[in-house]
TrEMBL record:
Protein name, per record: ABM domain-containing protein
Ranges for domain ABM: 52-152
Renumbered residue ranges of the record's region Disordered: 119-159
Biased composition regions of type Gly residues, renumbered to the chain: 129-145
Signal sequence, renumbered to the chain: none
Length: 174
């Protein structure tokens, strides 16, 4: 197993740092007395998952970063009203990415079912903020058909999903 890992690893691990933008969070339930949960761990049975994390990594073309971030900033989020939602962050890579991904979304849910319910809903994209312009797209200014959003991505987004156990969170949420 160690030999296989050495053959597949391309150098030492690289740190990827991110700036958290546009946080959306719900206040978590009151902490348990003493601040710690009582966990029964016998070393054999798996602990139950406490959260479901959905991430989507984006490779935004150079010069399009501000427009990409504005698409999120100009939308009125409905996430906090969704059952099972716990938090969201738009992440911007701090420094040059070695894997091509400049941005990521991170959303935390009570469980996969809550995430899937939101994903299947009609309000998942949010609505334009009042007076916010609605983000990319719109008329071309000459009475023509609406323009679509500009080409922003070097490659399609890549989703990834995780189940978290033994969650630590602040009193303010994410």
């Amino acid at each position: 197993m160690v030999l296989a890992t050495m053959q597949n690893t391309k150098g030492k691990p690289k740190v990827a740092l991110w700036d958290g933008l546009l946080p959306v969070s719900v206040v978590p339930p009151a902490p348990t007395p003493g601040g710690w949960r009582e966990i029964e761990a016998d070393g054999k049975a798996m602990l139950d998952g406490e959260v479901y994390v959905a991430m989507n990594r984006f490779s935004v073309l150079p010069g399009m970063e501000s427009g990409f971030e504005q698409r999120f900033a100009s939308r009125e989020s409905t996430l906090a009203s969704r059952d099972g939602f716990q938090g969201f962050l738009l992440l911007r890579r701090d420094g040059a990415p070695d894997d091509g991904f400049t941005h990521s979304t991170l959303s935390v849910w009570r469980d996969k079912a809550a995430f899937e319910a939101w994903r299947g809903s009609e309000d998942r994209a949010g609505k334009p903020k009042p007076g916010g312009g609605g983000g990319a797209g719109g008329a071309d200014g000459e009475g023509g058909p609406p323009k679509g959003p500009p080409q922003m991505f070097a490659k399609p987004p890549e989703p990834s999903f995780y189940e978290g156990i033994l969650v630590l969170e602040s009193a303010r949420g994410i």
